[in-house]
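Before the break, one more example. Copy the sequence into your notebook; we will annotate it together after we see the structure.
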Amino acid sequence: MDNVVMLTRIRLARNLKKYPFPCRLNLAGKNQVAKDVVDAIQKSNSAIADKFDVYEINKLTEPQRISLVESHLASPEFISDANGRVILISKDKTMSIMVNEEDHIRLQIIKKGYDLDKAYDLADKLDTLLDEQLDFAFDDKLGFLTQCPTNLGTGMRASVMLHLPALQRSRALSRISGNLQKLGLTMRGTYGEGSNPKGAMYQLSNQVTLGISEKSAIENLKNITNQLVSQELQAQQRMVKNIEIQDEISRSLGILKSAKLISCEEAIKLLSNVRFGIESGVIDNLKIDTIDELITDIQPATIMVNKNEKIAPRDRDIIRAGIIRERLS
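Here is what the structure looks like once it is written out:
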């Protein structure tokens, strides 16, 4: 199960009762919201307070901002406008709080593998801590009030990142995606709404937030995730009997182990093939975690952040190839 489910995420949208939504706030208002949220964490009596670092988005370089998206700690929309925006990130990179995105607060918990219950439990505790300090906007009939009506109610998006190479190859995903909408779920690309799937990585999340409890939404997501994982694994076992598929997986690993320069797009495609090989048992001497860490660490902005310098695309391709060779050796 954990092999197919790469990441689990719980995201909660919240707004402070005493302020207008971010779209109606001037810069001074956004700065005050940011101060209130940071103070709520740092001045709390909870042990969780020491776990966060605070970053003002307008003080980060462009690569640092993009790297937050590549690591799934922030949304593409959040980094598109730095004014009045702050992000709090836990030292272990499992929690982040985006301030002044579409809502005052976008709190998210990220766990490796398939761990919806623990992710929700941690999100609930952090949500309660913030609510006690900040007083969230809430209506008895509508639930938590959000700028976008589609988030009214629980304000929760529970999601899993799935690696679905076999279902993608069999072209079954378009049919599956259509059926998911009838079940209150949606499937998006690697970085959420408006993004394309890279390396057969898809986000599956609940679509309905009004008229349903958080736990019911999570149970629904669990049930459909289990079905998708089962379908993926069955499709994999059928496909890997094909010598051409086995050859493609082996060639992908060979290229990654020997390439002297490689683009991010090609690397992600080949790493996806290798991950497919590990999941299906064709490759037995590599760990899934090694591949998943590489998928993040070889992203363009993340390479520049880790090297602490601006690097031209061709030089990034050389560095990327070196990172991959070293990790796979």
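Residues 243-328 form one domain. The chain has a mean pLDDT of 93. Try to locate both features in your own notes.
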